[in-house]
């Protein structure tokens, strides 16, 4: 007697299917991607192009060009059976053609990350009280929270961006603010996009958090109240720490969505990844290379976000809380 | 005469049409251990929950140390600092260790700093024999250990009165003993306890009074030897014999 039913620790209790974090190749690729990004940004933004000129890629194109032409020649000489070699040649051709566009796209990636992080973080700050209001609020509070969520989930994000950007005085107000659009501070369109993403993402995040809060057993708040905690304190110290842990997997989806949906900011002239890709493509007519490249960059961001969230989920895991509960 | 520690005075409670408590009255002095028995649905849990106002009464009044605690302007959080509760299904805070469970109230309700709260927390865990499990999470504890943490959590607030709602009925039979033992210790220390339980061993040996509740009314109220050996009401006798039949395998 007196021995615990289970002596499992945080990691083993989860018995999770192998995730991204267990794949060395993914980790290596993501590591290389971020090394490149950080060196690129440091060179372009902080060192004023000290390592390499701003719009010059770190990677030379010549080797890929010559590989492409050699392999192209080989493919041609092989005749009808040469097509696999032709594909490899095409791949090198793609690399050679894409490399020069990496530097401007890296700048776009910076804006995309900034938009996403600000939107998700500020959205979270709104989403938590919103979801608490949905679950624990009185009639009026609950209705207001529900109305908000329905409004922002029920209308297109693009429409929300347009309304905020064109139909409200927001744009003018932000433009008049000191330092907006100077130095490292982005111009008004960026901030309008941040506000739109914040408001929109708060609605979606609150849905994930709300259902997670609902999965915290009622007895938890009862017990909290029975030791003299107020309802608000009980929610804060007992329900939320559990509910937010339950919310992580769903919430991670929202982060991934927002990375991709942040491309809508291009419609209100924000110079993020998609906008830069599109504008370079229309100048150079290299649509295929540029959009494939942009797609790969988005993919790298999405995988990074998933990795990060897996790591966070692992770090905050508590035996008996989380995956076993669902 | 000083006031009784707890007094229920003609307490009524209904849920919609359903009358759950119909004029419940009794008193407890400091140091008393009263055990409430009664059939399922008779209103035992409801009565306990009325005392710390997890449930609001519809009529009558409840007094703690002579002070009415069922007034609309009573601070329920103040009341609950003085009245601890132990639940049937433990309700341990799932995200906190045993120590965290015991210290949360000290820190967030009493405002004691972390180090001092932990020091007190260790003391209360020792009181229930779980010092070595201080860093275990609820999921890592056996049912009996969970309930002892639940008791330590309630004790930590230094309550004047402890409420127990069937503290052993969710436990495997072999784990009941360790919890009952802790409750006996508390009774011996003079802690005032109002216990809903059908654990007859505990009731016989530790109770000052037994309260038999049936259909929202106190049918019989008296010392264990009287109530068990010589029940006055026919209903009490019937209930007790049924209880014996259901428990005879143990
Ligand atoms: N929150 C509630 N809403 C509506 N009815 C309730 C509520 N809580 C309890 N009841 C009803 O009140 C009656 C008494 O319930 P209570 O839980 O107090 O009984 P009990 O004596 O503790 O029973 P048990 O031995 O099964 O725990 C039951 O008929 C129950 O359905
Ligand atoms: Mg009950």
Automatic annotation (TrEMBL), chain A:
The record ties this protein, via CDD domains, to: TM_PBP2
One Pfam family recorded for the sequence: BPD_transp_1
Question: What positions does the domain ABC transmembrane type-1 occupy?
Answer: 109-309
The keyword GTP-binding belongs to this UniProt entry's keyword annotation: no
**GO CC annotation terms, alphabetical:** ATP-binding cassette (ABC) transporter complex
Segments crossing the lipid bilayer? 81-102, 108-136, 157-174, 180-200, 290-309
Membrane topology term: Multi-pass membrane protein
Q: Which UniProt keywords apply?
A: Amino-acid transport, Cell membrane, Membrane, Transmembrane, Transmembrane helix, Transport
Q: Where in the cell is it found?
A: Cell membrane
User: What biological-process GO terms show up in the record?
Assistant: amino acid transport
Give this protein's Gene Ontology molecular function annotations: transmembrane transporter activity
**Which family does the record assign?**
Belongs to the binding-protein-dependent transport system permease family.
Q: What is this protein called?
A: Amino acid ABC transporter permease
Q: What is the lineage of its organism?
A: Archaea, Methanobacteriati, Methanobacteriota, Stenosarchaea group, Halobacteria
Automatic annotation (TrEMBL), chain B:
Which terms in the GO cellular component ontology are assigned? Answer: plasma membrane
Carries keyword Transport? yes
The annotated topology with respect to the bilayer is: Peripheral membrane protein
Decide whether keyword RNA-binding is in the record. no
Q: Which domain of life is it from?
A: Archaea
Keywords annotated in UniProt? Amino-acid transport, ATP-binding, Cell membrane, Membrane, Nucleotide-binding, Transport
Q: What protein name does the entry list?
A: Glutamine ABC transporter ATP-binding protein
A GO term, aspect molecular function:
ATP hydrolysis activity
Q: Which regions span the lipid bilayer? A: none
PANTHER family per the record?
A: AMINO ACID IMPORT ATP-BINDING PROTEIN, GLUTAMATE_ASPARTATE IMPORT ATP-BINDING PROTEIN GLTL
Q: Please list the residue ranges annotated as the ABC transporter domain.
A: 6-240
Compartments (UniProt record): Cell membrane
